[in-house]
Amino acid sequence: MSTSRSIERIIPAIRTVEGGGFVVHRPFPTRLLMDFDPFLLLDEMGPADYAPGEAKGAPDHPHRGFETVTYMLEGEFGHKDSAGHSGTLRPGDVQWMTAGAGVVHSEMPAEDFTRRGGRVHGLQLWVNLPQRDKMIAPHYQEIPSARIPVATSEDGKVSVKVIAGEALGVKAAIETRTPILYQHFSLKPGAQIELAVPRDYRVFAYPLSGTALYGPQSQPVRAQQMVVFRDDSDTIAVTAGDEPVELLLIGGVPLKEPVVRYGPFVMNTEEEIRQAVVDYQAGRMGAITH
């Protein structure tokens, strides 16, 4: 019988404020963990309830050298960029934005949602780009909820939305620059699952709701705590208690390259960061037309 990956550490998400004043819970980067190669940041936006006219977002800001993955659970966010791209993310939708050489981007609550108010809950993951791809042309993959593949376990107690990678025999629709898995699991009370993960992936779980038991030690972990697994097996075991559990399973093959970051710029050298600042200030990343 195989033994599932053991837990290396558990990191609580820190509550902070981003953009125009919206609340996020952030497991990394913090003083406890700066990055999780190949990932640079994970923010859980909310959950927060806004009265009419109160919803907040992230006004115009630049990115270079990495990808942002936005996954909406509740609420509606509009987005625009300096290349003239725009759209709206609704519950269950995913936007995988490859910033590459640079783009100016805004993420704001949709006008209708701002007028009526409501709950905002979503996630943003920053994925580092390998050195060879740092300066590629920006592009998007936008996947509405209906197009995200879903799989269910044989006993019907576990379901998963496969945003990236493969789970329960189903492959994602999104293409990634490097090998990555990003999966949203829903476990019914008492559900047990042993998930296959490639041995060369670094993997973590981030519970969104409910308390479950993780790893061969059956360690209880509640929502908004990041579970960092060791690379000592090719499976991950999760058992739900007496309540439903929602969790993200995220992993990837480490790039093992130098990381130099300055706010919204992530490159391999300090000189590249200085050049990114110069390019942005000179308007070479463009501007959003509102």
TrEMBL record:
Q: Where is the Pirin C-terminal domain?
A: 182-286
Per its UniProt entry, which superkingdom is the organism in?
Answer: Bacteria
MF annotations from Gene Ontology: metal ion binding
Q: Where does Fe cation bind?
A: 61, 63, 105, 107
What cofactor is this protein dependent on?
A: Fe cation
Give UniProt keywords alphabetically. Iron, Metal-binding
Q: Pinpoint the Pirin N-terminal domain residues.
A: 25-127
Bound how, and how many: what does the cofactor note say? Binds 1 Fe cation per subunit.
Entries under InterPro entries matching the protein: Pirin, Pirin_C_dom, Pirin_N_dom, RmlC-like_jellyroll, RmlC_Cupin_sf
As for family, the record states:
Belongs to the pirin family.
Task: Indicate what this protein is called per its UniProt record.
Answer: Putative chromosome condensation protein
User: What phylogenetic lineage does the species belong to?
Assistant: Bacteria, Pseudomonadati, Pseudomonadota, Betaproteobacteria, Burkholderiales
